[in-house]
Amino acid sequence: MSLLPKLQTRGIRLAAVLTLLVATAVLSALLIQLIASYQSEKDTLIDTTLTLNYSNAHKIAGTIDSLFTAMRGSLKTTAEYVSGTDNFEVGDIQTELELIRTTSRYFNSLTWVDETGYVHSIAPISVGLKGKTVNTGLTKVALDLRRPYSSEPYIAPSGRLIVMLTEPVYDRAGEYRGILIGSIYLQESNILYEILGNNVVDETGSYFYVTGPDGRILYHPDHARIGDNTDTNPVVHKLRDGLNGKQQVTNTKGIPMLAAYVSVHQNRWGVVQQTPVAAVHEKLTANLRQQVLYMLAPFLLLLLAVVFIARKLAHPFVSLADTVKQMSEGTYAPIAHTKPHWNREAELLTKTVIFAMEEMRKNNTQLIREASTDPLTELKNRRTMTDIMEGWFEARLRFSIVILDIDHFKSVNDTFGHPTGDEVLKSLAHVLSQSVRRSDICCRYGGEEFVLLFPGLHANEAFAQAERIRRKVERMATPIGRNVTISMGIAEYPCHAESMEALIDAADRAMYAAKQNGRNRTVVAISKEAAETVTQPEIGE
Protein backbone atom coordinates (compact mmCIF):
# COMPACT_ATOMS: atom_id res chain seq x y z
CA MET A 1 0.00 0.00 0.00
CA SER A 2 1.31 3.40 -0.96
CA LEU A 3 2.21 5.80 1.86
CA LEU A 4 1.86 8.78 -0.47
CA PRO A 5 -0.91 9.71 -2.85
CA LYS A 6 -0.18 9.04 -6.47
CA LEU A 7 1.64 12.04 -7.88
CA GLN A 8 0.32 13.85 -10.92
CA THR A 9 2.73 14.54 -13.76
CA ARG A 10 1.31 17.91 -14.68
CA GLY A 11 3.28 21.11 -13.97
CA ILE A 12 6.37 22.95 -15.09
CA ARG A 13 9.37 20.84 -15.87
CA LEU A 14 12.29 21.09 -13.44
CA ALA A 15 14.67 22.04 -16.23
CA ALA A 16 12.51 25.06 -17.07
CA VAL A 17 12.22 26.09 -13.42
CA LEU A 18 15.97 25.70 -12.89
CA THR A 19 16.70 27.67 -16.03
CA LEU A 20 14.45 30.50 -14.88
CA LEU A 21 15.95 30.36 -11.39
CA VAL A 22 19.52 30.46 -12.65
CA ALA A 23 18.71 33.25 -15.09
CA THR A 24 17.18 35.27 -12.26
CA ALA A 25 20.14 34.45 -10.01
CA VAL A 26 22.65 35.58 -12.62
CA LEU A 27 20.81 38.81 -13.23
CA SER A 28 20.52 39.36 -9.48
CA ALA A 29 24.20 38.59 -9.09
CA LEU A 30 24.97 41.24 -11.69
CA LEU A 31 22.94 43.77 -9.76
CA ILE A 32 24.47 42.75 -6.42
CA GLN A 33 27.94 42.89 -7.93
CA LEU A 34 27.31 46.41 -9.15
CA ILE A 35 25.95 47.50 -5.77
CA ALA A 36 28.78 45.81 -3.88
CA SER A 37 31.34 47.22 -6.28
CA TYR A 38 29.85 50.68 -5.89
CA GLN A 39 29.94 50.47 -2.11
CA SER A 40 33.43 48.98 -2.06
CA GLU A 41 34.77 51.58 -4.45
CA LYS A 42 33.02 54.28 -2.45
CA ASP A 43 34.71 53.13 0.75
CA THR A 44 38.05 52.86 -1.06
CA LEU A 45 37.76 56.31 -2.63
CA ILE A 46 36.73 57.87 0.67
CA ASP A 47 39.57 56.16 2.52
CA THR A 48 42.09 57.07 -0.20
CA THR A 49 40.90 60.68 -0.28
CA LEU A 50 41.11 60.96 3.50
CA THR A 51 44.58 59.40 3.48
CA LEU A 52 45.83 61.75 0.75
CA ASN A 53 44.28 64.73 2.51
CA TYR A 54 45.94 63.71 5.77
CA SER A 55 49.29 63.34 4.01
CA ASN A 56 48.97 66.80 2.45
CA ALA A 57 47.82 68.36 5.72
CA HIS A 58 50.73 66.72 7.54
CA LYS A 59 53.21 68.07 4.98
CA ILE A 60 51.78 71.59 5.22
CA ALA A 61 51.80 71.45 9.02
CA GLY A 62 55.39 70.22 8.92
CA THR A 63 56.32 73.09 6.62
CA ILE A 64 54.72 75.62 8.97
CA ASP A 65 56.45 74.00 11.92
CA SER A 66 59.82 74.14 10.15
CA LEU A 67 59.28 77.74 9.09
CA PHE A 68 58.49 78.91 12.61
CA THR A 69 61.48 76.96 13.94
CA ALA A 70 63.68 78.70 11.37
CA MET A 71 62.11 82.07 12.18
CA ARG A 72 62.75 81.53 15.86
CA GLY A 73 66.36 80.54 15.11
CA SER A 74 66.90 83.58 12.90
CA LEU A 75 65.42 85.88 15.53
CA LYS A 76 67.58 84.32 18.24
CA THR A 77 70.74 84.74 16.14
CA THR A 78 69.89 88.38 15.49
CA ALA A 79 69.23 88.94 19.21
CA GLU A 80 72.67 87.48 19.96
CA TYR A 81 74.18 89.88 17.41
CA VAL A 82 72.45 92.83 19.09
CA SER A 83 73.70 91.62 22.49
CA GLY A 84 77.26 91.46 21.19
CA THR A 85 77.46 94.93 19.62
CA ASP A 86 79.62 97.54 21.33
CA ASN A 87 77.41 99.80 23.46
CA PHE A 88 74.43 98.67 21.40
CA GLU A 89 75.45 100.85 18.44
CA VAL A 90 72.10 101.82 16.87
CA GLY A 91 73.52 102.26 13.38
CA ASP A 92 75.04 98.79 13.27
CA ILE A 93 71.89 97.24 14.68
CA GLN A 94 69.69 99.09 12.17
CA THR A 95 71.85 97.80 9.30
CA GLU A 96 71.72 94.25 10.63
CA LEU A 97 67.92 94.36 11.02
CA GLU A 98 67.50 95.63 7.45
CA LEU A 99 69.82 92.90 6.16
CA ILE A 100 68.02 90.10 8.01
CA ARG A 101 64.59 91.33 6.96
CA THR A 102 65.40 91.63 3.27
CA THR A 103 67.48 88.45 2.92
CA SER A 104 65.48 85.95 4.96
CA ARG A 105 62.01 87.35 4.15
CA TYR A 106 60.77 85.66 7.33
CA PHE A 107 59.55 88.90 8.90
CA ASN A 108 57.83 91.97 7.53
CA SER A 109 59.39 94.08 10.26
CA LEU A 110 62.11 93.71 12.92
CA THR A 111 62.21 95.96 15.98
CA TRP A 112 64.64 96.40 18.87
CA VAL A 113 62.85 97.71 21.95
CA ASP A 114 64.78 98.34 25.18
CA GLU A 115 63.57 97.31 28.63
CA THR A 116 61.62 100.58 29.03
CA GLY A 117 59.70 100.09 25.78
CA TYR A 118 61.73 102.65 23.81
CA VAL A 119 62.15 101.74 20.11
CA HIS A 120 65.84 102.08 19.20
CA SER A 121 65.80 100.46 15.77
CA ILE A 122 63.15 99.19 13.38
CA ALA A 123 63.29 97.77 9.88
CA PRO A 124 61.87 99.00 7.64
CA ILE A 125 62.27 102.51 8.98
CA SER A 126 59.03 103.45 7.19
CA VAL A 127 57.00 101.79 9.95
CA GLY A 128 57.57 105.06 11.81
CA LEU A 129 57.95 103.79 15.37
CA LYS A 130 61.65 104.60 15.85
CA GLY A 131 62.20 106.84 18.84
CA LYS A 132 58.77 106.11 20.31
CA THR A 133 57.83 104.20 23.46
CA VAL A 134 55.48 101.22 22.97
CA ASN A 135 55.36 99.74 26.48
CA THR A 136 51.73 98.55 26.19
CA GLY A 137 49.73 95.53 25.08
CA LEU A 138 51.61 92.52 23.75
CA THR A 139 54.88 94.45 23.75
CA LYS A 140 54.60 94.93 27.50
CA VAL A 141 53.74 91.24 27.93
CA ALA A 142 56.86 90.24 25.99
CA LEU A 143 59.05 92.73 27.88
CA ASP A 144 57.82 91.45 31.24
CA LEU A 145 58.31 87.79 30.28
CA ARG A 146 62.03 88.19 29.51
CA ARG A 147 61.98 84.98 27.52
CA PRO A 148 61.08 83.91 23.96
CA TYR A 149 57.44 84.66 23.23
CA SER A 150 55.00 83.95 20.37
CA SER A 151 51.72 85.82 20.19
CA GLU A 152 48.46 84.50 18.83
CA PRO A 153 47.33 86.14 15.57
CA TYR A 154 45.82 89.57 16.30
CA ILE A 155 44.52 92.59 14.42
CA ALA A 156 46.92 95.52 14.77
CA PRO A 157 45.72 99.17 14.82
CA SER A 158 46.82 99.31 11.19
CA GLY A 159 44.24 96.63 10.37
CA ARG A 160 46.89 94.02 9.61
CA LEU A 161 46.59 90.42 10.81
CA ILE A 162 49.89 89.92 12.64
CA VAL A 163 51.84 87.29 14.56
CA MET A 164 54.64 88.59 16.78
CA LEU A 165 57.75 86.61 17.79
CA THR A 166 60.15 88.02 20.40
CA GLU A 167 63.58 87.17 21.79
CA PRO A 168 65.08 88.74 24.93
CA VAL A 169 68.26 90.83 24.56
CA TYR A 170 70.97 90.79 27.26
CA ASP A 171 74.21 92.74 27.27
CA ARG A 172 77.61 91.14 27.76
CA ALA A 173 77.27 91.50 31.51
CA GLY A 174 74.04 89.52 31.46
CA GLU A 175 71.82 92.54 32.13
CA TYR A 176 68.37 92.53 30.50
CA ARG A 177 68.31 95.18 27.73
CA GLY A 178 64.94 94.62 26.07
CA ILE A 179 63.55 92.46 23.28
CA LEU A 180 63.91 91.89 19.56
CA ILE A 181 60.50 91.71 17.86
CA GLY A 182 59.85 89.94 14.57
CA SER A 183 56.44 90.79 13.09
CA ILE A 184 54.81 88.58 10.46
CA TYR A 185 52.02 90.18 8.43
CA LEU A 186 49.95 87.11 7.64
CA GLN A 187 48.24 88.58 4.59
CA GLU A 188 51.23 90.37 3.09
CA SER A 189 54.29 89.26 1.16
CA ASN A 190 56.66 86.98 3.08
CA ILE A 191 57.76 83.35 2.90
CA LEU A 192 54.79 82.18 4.96
CA TYR A 193 52.30 83.95 2.71
CA GLU A 194 53.93 82.61 -0.46
CA ILE A 195 53.42 79.05 0.84
CA LEU A 196 49.98 79.41 2.44
CA GLY A 197 48.45 82.51 0.92
CA ASN A 198 48.39 81.28 -2.69
CA ASN A 199 46.22 78.27 -1.90
CA VAL A 200 43.62 77.53 -4.61
CA VAL A 201 40.81 75.02 -5.07
CA ASP A 202 41.88 72.22 -7.42
CA GLU A 203 39.77 70.47 -10.07
CA THR A 204 38.31 68.02 -7.52
CA GLY A 205 37.24 70.81 -5.19
CA SER A 206 40.02 70.02 -2.71
CA TYR A 207 41.75 72.78 -0.78
CA PHE A 208 43.31 73.49 2.58
CA TYR A 209 42.88 76.22 5.10
CA VAL A 210 44.77 77.20 8.25
CA THR A 211 43.21 78.13 11.58
CA GLY A 212 44.65 79.90 14.60
CA PRO A 213 44.57 78.70 18.21
CA ASP A 214 41.13 80.33 18.68
CA GLY A 215 39.59 78.59 15.65
CA ARG A 216 39.63 81.64 13.37
CA ILE A 217 40.68 81.18 9.74
CA LEU A 218 44.13 82.59 8.94
CA TYR A 219 44.56 81.30 5.36
CA HIS A 220 41.81 80.20 2.97
CA PRO A 221 41.37 80.10 -0.83
CA ASP A 222 38.33 82.35 -0.34
CA HIS A 223 39.99 85.44 1.13
CA ALA A 224 36.60 86.71 2.26
CA ARG A 225 36.54 83.93 4.85
CA ILE A 226 39.80 84.98 6.53
CA GLY A 227 38.99 85.88 10.12
CA ASP A 228 35.80 83.75 10.25
CA ASN A 229 35.33 81.82 13.49
CA THR A 230 34.97 78.10 12.68
CA ASP A 231 35.03 76.82 16.25
CA THR A 232 31.66 75.11 15.70
CA ASN A 233 33.30 72.88 13.09
CA PRO A 234 34.09 69.59 14.92
CA VAL A 235 37.39 69.27 13.05
CA VAL A 236 38.54 72.73 14.15
CA HIS A 237 37.37 71.95 17.68
CA LYS A 238 39.65 68.89 17.71
CA LEU A 239 42.54 70.96 16.37
CA ARG A 240 42.13 73.32 19.31
CA ASP A 241 42.63 70.28 21.54
CA GLY A 242 45.88 69.47 19.69
CA LEU A 243 44.47 66.38 17.96
CA ASN A 244 45.28 65.02 14.49
CA GLY A 245 43.03 62.81 12.39
CA LYS A 246 40.68 62.43 9.44
CA GLN A 247 36.92 62.12 9.15
CA GLN A 248 33.83 63.02 7.17
CA VAL A 249 32.38 66.27 8.44
CA THR A 250 29.84 68.92 7.50
CA ASN A 251 31.54 72.31 7.51
CA THR A 252 30.12 75.58 8.79
CA LYS A 253 28.63 76.21 5.33
CA GLY A 254 26.64 72.95 5.51
CA ILE A 255 28.76 71.18 2.87
CA PRO A 256 29.77 67.54 3.56
CA MET A 257 33.55 67.25 3.39
CA LEU A 258 36.23 64.57 3.68
CA ALA A 259 38.59 66.39 5.99
CA ALA A 260 42.03 65.63 7.42
CA TYR A 261 43.42 67.82 10.16
CA VAL A 262 46.89 68.21 11.68
CA SER A 263 47.93 70.58 14.45
CA VAL A 264 51.15 72.59 14.30
CA HIS A 265 53.35 72.07 17.33
CA GLN A 266 55.21 75.38 17.23
CA ASN A 267 52.24 77.76 17.36
CA ARG A 268 49.08 75.67 18.00
CA TRP A 269 47.75 76.46 14.52
CA GLY A 270 45.81 73.84 12.63
CA VAL A 271 45.83 72.71 8.99
CA VAL A 272 42.66 71.27 7.43
CA GLN A 273 42.83 69.63 3.99
CA GLN A 274 39.39 68.71 2.67
CA THR A 275 37.56 67.45 -0.40
CA PRO A 276 33.80 67.74 -1.05
CA VAL A 277 31.97 64.41 -0.71
CA ALA A 278 30.14 65.35 -3.91
CA ALA A 279 33.42 65.05 -5.83
CA VAL A 280 33.75 61.43 -4.69
CA HIS A 281 30.16 60.69 -5.74
CA GLU A 282 30.78 62.17 -9.18
CA LYS A 283 33.83 59.95 -9.60
CA LEU A 284 31.85 56.92 -8.42
CA THR A 285 29.01 57.58 -10.87
CA ALA A 286 31.43 57.85 -13.79
CA ASN A 287 33.21 54.65 -12.73
CA LEU A 288 29.88 52.82 -12.37
CA ARG A 289 28.81 53.68 -15.91
CA GLN A 290 32.13 52.48 -17.25
CA GLN A 291 31.92 49.31 -15.18
CA VAL A 292 28.45 48.47 -16.51
CA LEU A 293 29.71 48.78 -20.08
CA TYR A 294 32.68 46.51 -19.37
CA MET A 295 30.60 43.90 -17.52
CA LEU A 296 27.51 43.70 -19.70
CA ALA A 297 28.87 41.59 -22.57
CA PRO A 298 30.77 39.08 -20.37
CA PHE A 299 27.76 38.67 -18.11
CA LEU A 300 25.46 37.99 -21.06
CA LEU A 301 27.83 35.29 -22.28
CA LEU A 302 28.09 33.90 -18.76
CA LEU A 303 24.32 33.86 -18.48
CA LEU A 304 24.00 31.77 -21.64
CA ALA A 305 26.67 29.35 -20.39
CA VAL A 306 25.03 29.05 -16.98
CA VAL A 307 21.61 28.40 -18.53
CA PHE A 308 23.11 25.61 -20.62
CA ILE A 309 24.89 24.09 -17.62
CA ALA A 310 21.77 24.45 -15.49
CA ARG A 311 19.78 22.37 -17.92
CA LYS A 312 22.45 19.68 -17.70
CA LEU A 313 22.43 19.89 -13.92
CA ALA A 314 18.67 19.26 -13.88
CA HIS A 315 19.22 15.68 -14.95
CA PRO A 316 20.10 14.31 -11.46
CA PHE A 317 16.84 15.64 -10.10
CA VAL A 318 15.01 13.37 -12.56
CA SER A 319 16.42 10.37 -10.74
CA LEU A 320 15.30 11.85 -7.44
CA ALA A 321 11.84 12.46 -8.90
CA ASP A 322 11.69 8.83 -10.02
CA THR A 323 12.55 7.70 -6.51
CA VAL A 324 9.77 9.88 -5.05
CA LYS A 325 7.38 8.53 -7.64
CA GLN A 326 8.25 4.96 -6.68
CA MET A 327 7.60 5.84 -3.05
CA SER A 328 4.22 7.25 -3.98
CA GLU A 329 3.42 3.94 -5.64
CA GLY A 330 4.40 1.97 -2.58
CA THR A 331 7.82 0.90 -3.81
CA TYR A 332 10.63 2.03 -1.43
CA ALA A 333 13.85 2.89 -3.19
CA PRO A 334 16.58 4.33 -0.91
CA ILE A 335 18.42 7.37 -2.22
CA ALA A 336 21.64 5.44 -1.81
CA HIS A 337 20.56 3.30 -4.76
CA THR A 338 20.52 6.31 -7.08
CA LYS A 339 23.52 7.48 -9.05
CA PRO A 340 26.74 7.61 -7.01
CA HIS A 341 27.42 11.32 -7.48
CA TRP A 342 24.58 12.12 -5.13
CA ASN A 343 26.27 10.22 -2.34
CA ARG A 344 29.48 12.04 -3.09
CA GLU A 345 27.74 15.41 -2.90
CA ALA A 346 26.05 14.44 0.35
CA GLU A 347 29.40 13.38 1.79
CA LEU A 348 31.02 16.59 0.60
CA LEU A 349 28.18 18.64 2.05
CA THR A 350 28.45 16.81 5.37
CA LYS A 351 32.19 17.38 5.54
CA THR A 352 31.71 21.01 4.62
CA VAL A 353 29.07 21.52 7.31
CA ILE A 354 31.24 19.75 9.92
CA PHE A 355 34.21 21.88 8.92
CA ALA A 356 32.08 25.03 9.03
CA MET A 357 30.75 24.15 12.48
CA GLU A 358 34.27 23.47 13.76
CA GLU A 359 35.39 26.83 12.41
CA MET A 360 32.39 28.45 14.09
CA ARG A 361 33.31 26.76 17.37
CA LYS A 362 36.88 28.02 17.12
CA ASN A 363 35.70 31.49 16.23
CA ASN A 364 33.23 31.44 19.10
CA THR A 365 35.98 30.37 21.52
CA GLN A 366 38.19 33.17 20.25
CA LEU A 367 35.38 35.72 20.58
CA ILE A 368 34.68 34.60 24.15
CA ARG A 369 38.36 34.98 25.00
CA GLU A 370 38.54 38.43 23.41
CA ALA A 371 35.36 39.49 25.23
CA SER A 372 36.79 38.48 28.61
CA THR A 373 40.39 39.67 28.21
CA ASP A 374 41.99 43.10 28.13
CA PRO A 375 43.75 43.27 24.72
CA LEU A 376 46.78 45.25 25.97
CA THR A 377 47.73 43.35 29.13
CA GLU A 378 45.98 40.01 28.41
CA LEU A 379 44.56 40.12 31.94
CA LYS A 380 40.89 39.65 32.73
CA ASN A 381 38.86 42.72 31.85
CA ARG A 382 36.42 44.63 34.01
CA ARG A 383 33.38 42.78 32.71
CA THR A 384 34.91 39.39 33.55
CA MET A 385 35.90 40.67 36.98
CA THR A 386 32.28 41.70 37.63
CA ASP A 387 30.98 38.27 36.55
CA ILE A 388 33.47 36.49 38.83
CA MET A 389 32.63 38.68 41.81
CA GLU A 390 28.89 38.21 41.28
CA GLY A 391 29.41 34.44 41.39
CA TRP A 392 31.42 34.71 44.60
CA PHE A 393 28.79 36.92 46.19
CA GLU A 394 26.05 34.45 45.27
CA ALA A 395 28.12 31.63 46.80
CA ARG A 396 28.93 33.86 49.83
CA LEU A 397 32.60 33.08 49.34
CA ARG A 398 34.99 35.04 51.54
CA PHE A 399 37.53 36.97 49.47
CA SER A 400 39.60 40.12 49.44
CA ILE A 401 39.84 42.68 46.66
CA VAL A 402 42.91 44.81 45.98
CA ILE A 403 42.62 47.91 43.80
CA LEU A 404 45.98 49.31 42.73
CA ASP A 405 46.97 52.34 40.71
CA ILE A 406 50.33 53.31 39.19
CA ASP A 407 51.69 56.42 40.90
CA HIS A 408 52.29 59.46 38.68
CA PHE A 409 51.39 57.45 35.55
CA LYS A 410 50.17 60.56 33.76
CA SER A 411 53.70 61.96 33.88
CA VAL A 412 54.95 58.73 32.24
CA ASN A 413 52.54 59.22 29.32
CA ASP A 414 53.30 62.94 29.11
CA THR A 415 57.08 62.42 29.20
CA PHE A 416 57.59 59.20 27.24
CA GLY A 417 54.39 58.94 25.19
CA HIS A 418 51.43 56.60 25.33
CA PRO A 419 53.17 53.66 23.53
CA THR A 420 55.83 53.62 26.27
CA GLY A 421 53.09 53.97 28.86
CA ASP A 422 51.43 50.90 27.37
CA GLU A 423 54.70 48.98 27.72
CA VAL A 424 54.82 49.96 31.41
CA LEU A 425 51.26 48.65 31.83
CA LYS A 426 52.25 45.36 30.18
CA SER A 427 55.32 45.06 32.42
CA LEU A 428 53.17 45.59 35.50
CA ALA A 429 50.58 43.10 34.26
CA HIS A 430 53.33 40.50 33.77
CA VAL A 431 54.63 41.01 37.32
CA LEU A 432 51.11 40.77 38.74
CA SER A 433 50.25 37.57 36.87
CA GLN A 434 53.56 35.97 37.95
CA SER A 435 53.12 36.99 41.60
CA VAL A 436 49.71 35.52 42.50
CA ARG A 437 48.37 32.05 43.17
CA ARG A 438 46.62 29.95 40.53
CA SER A 439 43.29 30.63 42.24
CA ASP A 440 43.81 34.41 42.33
CA ILE A 441 42.41 36.69 39.64
CA CYS A 442 44.31 39.57 37.98
CA CYS A 443 42.21 42.16 36.16
CA ARG A 444 42.74 45.44 34.42
CA TYR A 445 40.13 47.75 35.93
CA GLY A 446 40.69 50.63 33.54
CA GLY A 447 43.50 53.01 32.56
CA GLU A 448 46.38 52.48 35.00
CA GLU A 449 44.16 50.78 37.61
CA PHE A 450 44.29 47.03 38.23
CA VAL A 451 42.33 44.69 40.50
CA LEU A 452 43.51 41.57 42.31
CA LEU A 453 40.95 39.11 43.71
CA PHE A 454 42.16 36.76 46.48
CA PRO A 455 39.55 34.06 47.16
CA GLY A 456 39.57 32.74 50.74
CA LEU A 457 41.98 35.38 52.08
CA HIS A 458 41.30 37.73 54.96
CA ALA A 459 42.29 41.36 54.59
CA ASN A 460 45.47 40.93 56.64
CA GLU A 461 46.52 37.98 54.49
CA ALA A 462 45.74 39.95 51.34
CA PHE A 463 47.77 42.82 52.80
CA ALA A 464 50.82 40.57 53.09
CA GLN A 465 50.39 39.43 49.47
CA ALA A 466 49.86 43.01 48.30
CA GLU A 467 52.97 44.27 50.09
CA ARG A 468 55.04 41.52 48.52
CA ILE A 469 53.74 42.49 45.08
CA ARG A 470 54.25 46.21 45.77
CA ARG A 471 57.90 45.65 46.65
CA LYS A 472 58.37 43.47 43.59
CA VAL A 473 56.85 46.16 41.33
CA GLU A 474 59.10 48.76 42.94
CA ARG A 475 62.13 46.79 41.77
CA MET A 476 60.91 45.70 38.32
CA ALA A 477 62.65 46.86 35.16
CA THR A 478 60.60 49.28 33.07
CA PRO A 479 60.88 50.68 29.53
CA ILE A 480 61.29 54.20 30.94
CA GLY A 481 64.58 53.37 32.67
CA ARG A 482 63.37 54.15 36.17
CA ASN A 483 61.29 52.45 38.80
CA VAL A 484 57.54 52.84 39.10
CA THR A 485 55.49 52.48 42.27
CA ILE A 486 51.91 51.56 43.00
CA SER A 487 49.36 52.52 45.64
CA MET A 488 47.00 49.76 46.80
CA GLY A 489 43.68 49.63 48.63
CA ILE A 490 42.26 46.44 50.19
CA ALA A 491 38.73 45.48 51.24
CA GLU A 492 37.38 42.12 52.42
CA TYR A 493 34.00 40.51 51.88
CA PRO A 494 31.99 40.32 54.09
CA CYS A 495 34.08 42.19 56.65
CA HIS A 496 34.01 45.58 54.92
CA ALA A 497 30.93 45.38 52.71
CA GLU A 498 28.13 43.03 51.72
CA SER A 499 27.57 44.23 48.14
CA MET A 500 29.90 44.37 45.19
CA GLU A 501 29.50 48.12 44.70
CA ALA A 502 30.18 48.86 48.37
CA LEU A 503 33.17 46.51 48.44
CA ILE A 504 34.74 48.11 45.37
CA ASP A 505 34.05 51.56 46.82
CA ALA A 506 35.73 50.60 50.12
CA ALA A 507 38.83 49.31 48.33
CA ASP A 508 38.86 52.35 46.06
CA ARG A 509 38.71 54.73 49.03
CA ALA A 510 41.50 52.78 50.68
CA MET A 511 43.60 53.11 47.54
CA TYR A 512 43.05 56.87 47.45
CA ALA A 513 43.99 57.02 51.12
CA ALA A 514 47.28 55.36 50.13
CA LYS A 515 47.72 58.08 47.51
CA GLN A 516 47.04 60.82 50.04
CA ASN A 517 49.43 59.28 52.59
CA GLY A 518 52.39 59.52 50.27
CA ARG A 519 51.84 56.81 47.60
CA ASN A 520 53.82 53.57 47.22
CA ARG A 521 51.97 51.92 50.09
CA THR A 522 49.05 49.64 50.89
CA VAL A 523 45.98 50.66 52.89
CA VAL A 524 43.19 48.43 54.24
CA ALA A 525 39.63 49.58 54.78
CA ILE A 526 38.71 49.26 58.48
CA SER A 527 34.93 48.70 58.56
CA LYS A 528 31.70 48.81 56.58
CA GLU A 529 30.69 52.14 58.11
CA ALA A 530 34.05 53.91 58.04
CA ALA A 531 34.53 56.61 55.46
CA GLU A 532 38.23 56.81 56.16
CA THR A 533 41.04 54.28 56.11
CA VAL A 534 44.28 53.82 58.00
CA THR A 535 47.71 52.94 56.74
CA GLN A 536 48.96 49.49 57.70
CA PRO A 537 52.60 49.02 58.83
CA GLU A 538 54.91 47.62 56.21
CA ILE A 539 55.82 43.98 56.62
CA GLY A 540 58.64 41.91 55.20
CA GLU A 541 58.42 40.15 51.90
From TrEMBL:
NCBIfam families: GGDEF. It is found in: Cell membrane. Coiled coil: none annotated. Residues 397-527 form the GGDEF domain. The chain crosses the membrane at residues 292-310. This is Diguanylate cyclase (GGDEF)-like protein. It comes from Paenibacillus methanolicus. InterPro entries: dCache_1, Diguanylate_Cyclase, GGDEF_dom, Nucleotide_cyclase, Rev_trsase/Diguanyl_cyclase, Sensor-like_sf.
